[in-house]
């Protein structure tokens, strides 16, 4: 691409501004809010994967917590049983493999169904994992969960968790997030992504043009689950602790919620949803013990007033302004 | 190109297709007409493999396809459109045609290359859209098209798979009367341009007369008569049973 054209492209400019903003975040936010922000980035990665199923394949999963848990527990298990390789460059690939295997097993069962049956199956399977993590105390730590030690990054070790979270980990996380964003962006615009959209729109016709519907749904499920696993593994380092709650349908519901909040019609919607939800939840929790009420009311308002989510709302307003400008100019 | 021999299909006691035999040559447009329940859609479903015949044979390009799956028949070059259009409604018009092309060219599994990088396939897509008069609508969603354009796009999708024989189930149903000829002009132009054959189920006799090389008339599961449009239309039984014209009325 022409460099000049790239630089002056409106979209590139937005990317550049967002990137600069993200780069200076550790200097702007308080340590507490930075940790929240890091947490939101991990959820944003989960949201990217989740939306490959919801927006691009037309499948609503209520069990994505399971793959998140697979990534998170993979890290915890390595920390507990093989501490000699407890370094982030090993942990991430292990988490990827764990979530990929789990999503392949669960996906094999789920993709044979669609709509409510698919949603219920994903939910049931994630609860199965929850029960396993909860009851298998000797291995998983049961309801107490497992402690996540601070890992080293490419040989660099950290004495204290705050030192790790205050900067180095943030930039590591940012790099992984950008890679995930770019990979997912390419996937949804690739012929494979178009095949998924064809399946979402019209299964019969997709079959007629030679797309193996179930097989492609299965691939999408695995990719989506793996993204959740990556998010889960990265989240554990921020949280420092993992419990079976992440595999509970309640947590999977939160993934659905943040995607709806941001707006699943737009690629960046779940990312925005992840950030807004993380801060909204924590501040609501600090504000009242009935914080779930605030989340619930927000969901009702969202469905009634902004069915396309926050990102969808912004785009609608932007388009209206643009139309008004065009009409005003004629 | 297509030969059908003594085809039979019953649903319970109903003989939907009763000893039907006919053939379609290369570059020929054949219309299939008949009253409701005559067995037209059943015949198209038999030809595209959605249902299997009780007996009889179907040959396509010298190959026996009687028991071939719909997918195999598509691979061999039999495409079909539906009475109710089957589009990728939430996708752009461009992608409705481009996705079948990716599939046809074995690129559909490509995961890490953006679709736009396949310049040849995009060029081919735009050419097909041009043939079907949809080139200026490539960036709008399929669901936003008019009924007529939806029909045309539905056929363009089958055409994109490099079909040799198109089975069109009522291509103008649901299209506004004033647009019917426009839609058919576009479809028939594409068919003639690519030198493919077509079997068209149609109720509008003006369209049948204008665009067909040959007409097959079905009645109660059997072929009543076949031949050139003007010969068939003036046939006594066709006028009486299909067109609903008694001889007395026409004489008056």
Ordered list of secondary-structure elements with their pairings:
The complex is a heterodimer of chains A (330) and B (252).
Chain A: H1 3-8, H2 10-28, H3 31-57, H4 65-81, H5 88-110, H6 115-135, H7 137-140, E1 146-147, H8 161-166, H9 168-189, H10 191-201, H11 203-208, H12 213-239, E2 241-242, H13 249-262, H14 269-287, H15 291-305, H16 309-329
Antiparallel strand pairs in A: 1-2
Helix pairs in contact in A: 3-9, 3-12, 3-13, 3-14, 4-5, 4-12, 5-6, 5-12, 9-10, 10-12, 13-14, 13-16, 14-15
Chain B: E1 2-11, E2 14-24, E3 29-34, H1 40-48, E4 55-60, E5 63-64, H2 70-76, E6 78-81, H3 93-104, H4 119-131, H5 147-160, E7 165-169, H6 177-194, E8 197-201, H7 205-211, E9 214-219, E10 222-227, H8 229-233, H9 236-242, H10 247-251
Parallel strand pairs in B: 3-8, 3-9, 6-7, 7-8
Antiparallel strand pairs in B: 1-2, 1-4, 4-5, 9-10
Helix pairs in contact in B: 3-4, 3-5, 5-6
- Overall pLDDT level of chain A: 90
Give the domain tally of chain B: 1
Q: Strands of the largest sheet of chain A, in order across it?
A: 1-2
Structural class assignment of chain A: mainly alpha
Strand content of chain A: under 5%
What's the CATH architecture of chain B? Answer: 3-Layer(aba) Sandwich
Shape of chain A: globular
Mean pLDDT of chain B: 88
Q: What's the level 1 CATH class of chain B?
A: Alpha Beta
In the predicted model, the low-confidence regions of chain A spanning at least 5 consecutive residues are none
Please state the CA-atom Rg of chain A, rounded to the nearest Å: 20 Å
Q: Identify the strand order in the major beta sheet of chain B.
A: 6-7-8-3-9-10
Corresponding CATH superfamily of chain B: P-loop containing nucleotide triphosphate hydrolases
Fraction of residues in helix of chain A: over 70%
Beta fraction of chain B: 15-25%
Describe this structure in words.
The complex is a heterodimer of chains A (330) and B (252). With 330 residues, chain A is an all-alpha fold. Chain A has a domain at 30-246. Helices cover 78% and strands 1% of the residues of chain A. Chain A is built from 16 helices and 2 strands. Chain A has helices at residues 3-8, 10-28, 31-57, 65-81, 88-110, 115-135, 137-140, 161-166, 168-189, 191-201, 203-208, 213-239, 249-262, 269-287, 291-305, 309-329; strands at 146-147, 241-242. In chain A, helix 4 packs across helix 12 (213-239). Chain A is globular. The mean pLDDT of chain A is 90. With 252 residues, chain B is α/β, with parallel strands linked by helices. Helices cover 38% and strands 24% of the residues of chain B. Chain B is built from 10 helices and 10 strands. Chain B has helices spanning 40-48, 70-76, 93-104, 119-131, 147-160, 177-194, 205-211, 229-233, 236-242, 247-251, and strands at residues 2-11, 14-24, 29-34, 55-60, 63-64, 78-81, 165-169, 197-201, 214-219, 222-227. In chain B, strands 6-7-8-3-9-10 form a 6-stranded mixed beta sheet, with helices on both faces. In chain B, strands 2-1-4-5 form a 4-stranded antiparallel beta sheet, covered by helices on one side. The termini of chain B are far apart. The chains are: A mainly alpha (330), B alpha/beta (252). Chain A binds chain B through residues 183, 186-187, 189-195, 197-198, 200-202, 204-211, and chain B through 70-71, 74-75, 80, 86-91, 95, 98-100, 102-104, 107-116, 118, 157, 161.
């Amino acid at each position: 691409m022409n460099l000049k054209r790239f630089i002056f492209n409106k979209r590139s400019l937005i990317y550049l501004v967002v990137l600069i903003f993200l780069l200076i975040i550790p200097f702007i936010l308080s340590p507490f809010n930075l940790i929240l922000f890091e947490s939101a980035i991990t959820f944003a990665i989960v949201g990217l994967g989740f939306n490959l199923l919801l927006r691009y394949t037309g499948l609503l999963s209520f069990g994505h917590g399971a793959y998140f848990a697979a990534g998170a527990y993979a890290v915890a298990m390595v920390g507990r049983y093989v501490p000699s390789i407890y370094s982030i460059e090993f942990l991430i690939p292990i988490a990827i493999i764990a979530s990929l295997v789990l999503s392949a097993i669960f996906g094999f069962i789920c993709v044979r169904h669609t709509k409510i049956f698919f949603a219920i199956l994903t939910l049931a399977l994630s609860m199965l994992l929850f029960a396993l993590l909860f009851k298998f105390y000797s291995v998983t730590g049961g309801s107490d969960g497992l402690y996540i030690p601070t890992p080293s990054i490419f040989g660099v070790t950290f004495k204290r968790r705050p030192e790790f979270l205050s900067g180095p980990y943030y930039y590591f996380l940012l790099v992984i997030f950008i890679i995930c964003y770019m990979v997912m962006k390419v996937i949804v615009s690739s012929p494979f992504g178009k095949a998924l959209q064809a399946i979402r729109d019209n299964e019969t016709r997709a079959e007629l043009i030679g797309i193996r519907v179930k097989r492609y749904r299965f691939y999408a499920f695995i990719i989506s689950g793996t993204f959740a696993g990556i998010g889960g593994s990265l989240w554990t380092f921020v949280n420092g602790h993992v419990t079976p709650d992440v595999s509970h349908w309640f947590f999977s519901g939160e993934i659905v919620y943040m995607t709806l909040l941001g707006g699943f019609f737009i690629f960046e919607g779940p990312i925005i949803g992840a950030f807004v939800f993380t801060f909204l939840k924590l501040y609501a929790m600090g504000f009242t013990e009935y914080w779930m009420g605030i989340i619930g009311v927000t969901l009702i308002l969202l469905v009634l007033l902004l069915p396309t989510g926050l990102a969808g709302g912004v785009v609608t307003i932007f388009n209206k302004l643009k139309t008004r400008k065009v009409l005003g100019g004629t | 190109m297509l030969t059908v021999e003594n085809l039979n299909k019953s649903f319970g006691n109903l003989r939907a297709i009763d000893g039907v035999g006919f053939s379609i040559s290369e570059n020929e447009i054949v219309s299939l007409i008949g009253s409701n329940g005559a067995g037209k859609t059943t015949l198209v479903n038999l030809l595209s493999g959605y249902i299997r015949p009780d007996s009889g044979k179907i040959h396509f390009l010298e190959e026996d396809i009687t028991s071939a799956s719909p997918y195999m028949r598509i691979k061999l070059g039999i495409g079909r459109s539906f009475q109710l259009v089957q589009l990728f409604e939430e996708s752009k018009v461009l992608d409705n045609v481009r996705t079948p092309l990716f599939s046809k060219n074995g690129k559909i599994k490509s995961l890490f290359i953006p679709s736009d990088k396949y310049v040849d396939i995009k060029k081919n897509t735009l050419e097909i859209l041009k043939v079907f008069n949809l080139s200026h609508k490539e960036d709008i969603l399929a669901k936003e098209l008019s009924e007529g354009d939806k029909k045309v796009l539905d056929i363009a999708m089958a055409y994109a798979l490099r079909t040799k024989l198109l089975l069109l189930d009522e291509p103008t149903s649901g299209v506004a009367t004033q647009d019917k000829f426009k839609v058919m002009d576009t479809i028939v132009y594409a068919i003639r341009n690519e030198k493919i054959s077509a079997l068209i189920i149609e109720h509008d006799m003006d369209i049948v007369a204008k665009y067909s090389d040959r007409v097959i008339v079905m009645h109660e599961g059997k072929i009543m008569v076949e031949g050139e449009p003007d010969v068939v239309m003036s046939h006594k039984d066709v006028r009486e049973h299909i067109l609903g014209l008694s001889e007395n009325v026409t004489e008056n």
